[in-house]
Amino acid sequence: MHFAPRWLALAGLALVTTATSVSAQTGTKIDSTNIRKIYDEALLRGQSYENLRQLTGTIGGRLSGSPQAEKAVQWGKVTMEKLGLDRVYLQEVMVPHWVRGPKEKAQIKPAKGKGIALNVCALGGSVGTNGKMQAGVVEVDSWQELAAMPDDKVKGKFIFYNRPMNPTFIETGRAYGDAGDQRRRGAIEAAKRGAIGALVRSLSLAHDDFPHTGTMSYDEQVKKVPAAALSTNDADELSQLLKADPGLTVELEMGCQQLPEVKSYNVIGEIKGSKYPDEIISVGGHLDSWDLAQGAHDDGTGCVQSMEVLRLLKATGLRPERTVRAVLFMNEENGTRGGNKYAELAKAANEKHLAAMESDGGGFTPRGFGIEGSPEVVKKVQQWSPLFAPYKSEEIGPGHGGTDIGPLKEQVKALIGYECDDQRYFDIHHTAADTFDKVNRRELELGGASMAALIYLMSKYGL
């Protein structure tokens, strides 16, 4: 989600070594033709969209440890087996099992008049309220503001974190990261001050009634208090009402709980390389999702695009020279256990990983790729930018790879994040609105083709 400026990608073309430039030029015409084949196959006969329809429609939300997550594992295995790959297998991993329980309830209780219902949801990993919990509210928009408050103003209250995502950041992923510390640390910092819980403004630039869940954390040395997200509309309303009535209270009821860990799996399919089978390129998305909706953009799209990469290479007859693996990672949302296990086993097996790519920014219009690697590797990938220009996905430069492939960093030459238009992503991210109907078929298939094209080039030329 960290787009490199177009000028940076083009400037990199002038910096490649002479040897690299020659190898690229000798293959440019053939590569251009083959990449066209990949895009044509995706746009004429792509399977990503229908696979996503099946995943979201028959299984839905797939939180780690849930029966739906287990069904998704079997679905992924069967779907890849139908592609006729060289190998399809499951990789065991233990995952956390948090359950939301009954739908959360909350309301504002003014000093006079009727209560006002709030749209809330528990943050992932939160403890429950053990019945109804009612207390006053203290609003803050920074850690400094919280630290400056006297104990008697905070103790026994809800801390209401209301710092919005910064709308002036053009890259919405940057705005998300900038405001996300409230969600991740909010309950810990509230409990340190004697507060009974945390209320957090949803991480979204949209103004609507959808609360956004997402993982939060606890410190084992600090009391665990409940943490809930408010929709942006309700956060605005609560803020306004507090100004008029600082003595109002909020009532919250959540039945979530943490259960014992559960055995689950990463799902892996691969095509063996024709020349360098011991060199591996991984491409993946995360199979788990939050439980509020179908997990379509986050990250059903990344999973079906990764599987489609293998299908596109087979369907076009472009057998990769290096081994290509599609990995459907389990437990990205609340633990990254799948990514850690994949990297752990790869290291134990002394596997040689050339690169790893991840799609976890939604299935919107492709823009390019963010590269984590040495300057020399970044420049080498940038040299291929002109081949992507006809498809408007040529923005290639330094950027973020991805959460699931992050643990591979010391084992690969490059971590690569597939980047698409992110302006709408956080409107639906981690909400009940993340459903199949929000995904555009053409945008999704174009993204899978872009990923397959870059993997084709890396498999042919290496890094």
From TrEMBL:
Q: Where does the UniProt annotation locate this protein?
A: Endoplasmic reticulum; Golgi apparatus; Lysosome; Secreted
Which Pfam family, just one, is annotated for this protein?
A: Peptidase_M28
Q: Where is the Peptidase M28 domain?
A: 266-449
Q: What GO biological process term is on the record, naming one?
A: proteolysis
TM region positions: none
One Gene Ontology CC term in the entry: extracellular region
Q: Which residues form the signal peptide?
A: 1-24
Question: Does this entry carry the keyword Isomerase?
Answer: no
Q: Does the keyword Methyltransferase apply?
A: no
Keywords, A to Z? Carboxypeptidase, Endoplasmic reticulum, Glycoprotein, Golgi apparatus, Hydrolase, Lysosome, Metal-binding, Metalloprotease, Protease, Secreted, Signal, Zinc, Zymogen
Can you provide one Gene Ontology molecular function annotated for this UniProt record? metallodipeptidase activity
State where it is primarily located. Answer: endoplasmic reticulum
Record text on subunit structure and interactions: Homodimer. The monomeric form is inactive while the homodimer is active.
The protein in question is named Carboxypeptidase Q
